[in-house]
Amino acid sequence: MKYKKTVCAAAAVLFSHTAWADSYFQRVLSEWPSMPSAIQQTGISLYGAVDMGLNFQSVSGNSRWQTQSGGVHTSQFGLFGREDLGGGLKAEFDLENGFMANNGTFGTSNTLFDRAAWVGLNSASWGAVRLGLQPTANLPPFVDPFGEVTTNSVVTWLAGSAVQTPKGVGYNADLGPGSSQVLVRTNNAATWTTPRIMGFGATFLYAFNGQAGVSPNASNEGAVASWTNGTWYLAGAYNRVWSAPVATPEGMQIVRNDIYGASAIYDVGSYVLSAAFAQVAPKLADNGIARSYLVGATLPWGRHAVRVSTVYRDTSGVRDAHGEPAKDSALGVMVGYDYSLSKRTSLYARAGFIRNYGISSVILNNNPLPLQTGTASPELGTTPMTASLGLYHLF
């Protein structure tokens, strides 16, 4: 299973109609060449990031050292284009590929553009319409000080609910069959993003499942609304996500997951505070419910920035392998430091852990948990840890 997160797409929606001089995020993101705002007029831009680091991982006495791509930014390259059609209307497209900088392979096998492949129209009067592979209508990834990167972020793995079971790793797999999660991006999607008026804006999404004869036609229906005044950024999201057909006591079923979320960011430039809550509720009898709580902070000064995030995931209605009610919760902490060599090149350090309680078996940084002796079940009560030193360059 691939976990793909990035801050740029959601940030582009937030800041597309705003400019706040005192905002730390606005100041930093405006320097990223991957932001669509980098192209002000008609044109095509090549953008990307190369991120490499040295990573250490440990869980239950098993440890390893490795080179790691994407410790802060997913290594990527993309083409963003815009044509001015006149009358305030623009045509736009984005094609973006994720790759592994340590070996040059695709981030997703046999897929050239796995992070974005959409075309659309953008109007200052009625907003933007896009068709194709694109971000979902969800809470902004930058509520996490680590941008929900696929590696060094406890939000990605814990709030994203990457649970290891005897069948492998799945989103909220401990809640029961058909349990799922809102992905950061989705295929076959149509979206409408409203203009931002008096700080208010919204995005509505409908993603087709692409399968003939399968009902409903949607794989994801979602909406996210937000308000900002440059210091505060508040957002709320609701998504319905349908699983693939899964075996249940009543036979093969498609399970609907209702996913709610709310977040707040307080950004005064000299420091940033954030908090978020999300709940995943599969609509299947006897399935559990998961809730996650996040608090984070970023303290920038000069070329330096210190970051920290804490996530707690709790569940209700979860049962163990014998069908008995079970405790199932986990706590994650991540800390980090960045030193900017220039506007586009930085050194970084990251360290974090996830402490699993009860039958919880959440992994961290794609490192599988050790198995119980003679079984395919992961060990319980584990604490996976990760630490990285690295360098990234944006272009």
Tell me briefly what this model is.
This protein is mostly beta strands. The protein is 5% helix and 51% strand. The chain has a single domain (8-394), classed as Beta Barrel (Porin), CATH 2.40.160.10.
CATH architecture: Beta Barrel
Order of helices and strands: HHEEEEEEHEEEEEEEEEEEEEEE
Q: Would you count the extended β strands for me?
A: 21
Mean residue pLDDT: 92
Low-confidence residue ranges = 1-7, 13-19
Integer tally of domains: 1
Q: What structural class do you assign from the helix and strand content?
A: mainly beta
Strand content: over 45%
State the CATH class: Mainly Beta
The percentage helix is under 10%
Task: Walk me through the structure.
It is a single chain. The chain is mostly beta strands and 395 residues long. The chain has a single domain, classed as Porin (Beta Barrel). Helix content is 5%, strand content 51%. It has helices at 8-15, 24-29, 154-159, and strands spanning 43-59, 62-69, 76-86, 89-98, 116-123, 127-135, 162-165, 168-171, 185-193, 200-208, 218-228, 232-242, 246-248, 251-253, 256-267, 272-282, 289-301, 304-316, 328-340, 345-358, 385-394. The radius of gyration is 21 Å and the shape is globular.
